[in-house]
């Protein structure tokens, strides 16, 4: 099964200058909870945006068109999505974590969406791809806690593809 995991602003921004446009530690915790133990699939630029290298306790799979792109031994490099099945088990929940081109690449395959909706407009250079939400059912919704470290209102939403 393919799932998407991402955070998106009110104006559909997901990134700026190779980083997230906001600081929301509670969303980072949510991302960790949702993805730990599952393979994560990401574009080369998203991989390079991690300050401390590959994310622990998850198989990190990086997509690049450059077959010579260097990754540590624990990380899998693929150059085409057809190679994914060599590295994941049929019953794995494969977490596609962006960015824009990678969401576009898997938009026809996705079964579940883990969206953090941030109720604030941000300036940015990377947008979420348009998804057809009429093909999905909202199965979980939880308001995020706003405090001095998480200053923007946000909601965690989970959608499941309608069969
Ligand atoms: N808000 C969120 O939840 C979220 C999630 C993820 C990322 N982001 C943000 O989004 C930005 C990065 O996203 P991005 O869209 O610019 O880049 P990206 O999708 O992470 O990476 C793009 C790279 O992926 C490779 N690629 C793309 N399509 C491919 C294909 N069909 N086949 C093989 N390789 C392919 C290419 O690598 P090569 O150039 O090496 O060939 C391409 O340059 C950052 O600002 C990041 O912080 C936000």
Automatic annotation (TrEMBL):
Output the PROSITE patterns linked to this UniProt entry.
DHFR_2
Q: Which CDD domains match?
A: DHFR
What are the BP-aspect GO terms?
dihydrofolate metabolic process; folic acid metabolic process; one-carbon metabolic process; tetrahydrofolate biosynthetic process
Its EC number(s):
1.5.1.3
Q: Would you tell me the Gene Ontology cellular component terms?
A: cytosol
Q: Molecular function (GO) terms listed?
A: dihydrofolate reductase activity; NADP binding
Reactions performed catalytically: (6S)-5,6,7,8-tetrahydrofolate + NADP(+) = 7,8-dihydrofolate + NADPH + H(+)
Lineage: superkingdom: Bacteria
Q: Which UniProt keywords apply?
A: NADP, One-carbon metabolism, Oxidoreductase
Sorted alphabetically, which Pfam families does this protein's record hold?
A: DHFR_1
The family database entries (Gene3D superfamilies) matched by this protein are listed as: Dihydrofolate Reductase, subunit A (3.40.430.10)
- Does the keyword Oxidoreductase belong to this entry? yes
Residues forming the DHFR domain are: 1-161
**UniProt xrefs under InterPro entries:** DHFR, DHFR-like_dom_sf, DHFR_dom
Q: In which pathway does it act?
A: Cofactor biosynthesis; tetrahydrofolate biosynthesis; 5,6,7,8-tetrahydrofolate from 7,8-dihydrofolate: step 1/1
Q: Which family does it belong to?
A: Belongs to the dihydrofolate reductase family.
Q: What does this protein do?
A: Key enzyme in folate metabolism. Catalyzes an essential reaction for de novo glycine and purine synthesis, and for DNA precursor synthesis.
Per its record, how is this protein called by name? Dihydrofolate reductase
- What organism, scientifically named, is this protein from? Companilactobacillus zhachilii
């Amino acid at each position: 099964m393919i799932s998407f995991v991402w955070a998106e602003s009110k104006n559909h921004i997901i990134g700026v200058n190779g980083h997230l446009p906001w600081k929301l530690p509670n969303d980072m915790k949510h991302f960790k909870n949702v993805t730990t133990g599952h393979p994560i699939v990401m574009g080369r630029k998203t991989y390079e945006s991690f300050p401390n290298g590959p994310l622990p306790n998850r198989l990190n799979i990086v997509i690049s068109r450059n077959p010579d792109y260097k990754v540590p031994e624990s990380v899998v490099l693929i150059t085409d999505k057809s190679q994914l099945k060599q590295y994941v088990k049929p019953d794995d929940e494969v977490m596609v974590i962006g960015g824009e081109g990678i969401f576009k690449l898997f938009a026809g395959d996705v079964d579940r969406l883990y969206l953090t909706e941030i109720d604030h407009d941000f300036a940015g250079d990377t947008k979420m791809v348009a998804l057809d939400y009429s093909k999905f059912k909202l199965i979980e919704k939880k308001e995020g806690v706003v405090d001095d470290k998480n200053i923007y209102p946000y909601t965690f939403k989970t959608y499941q593809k309608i069969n």
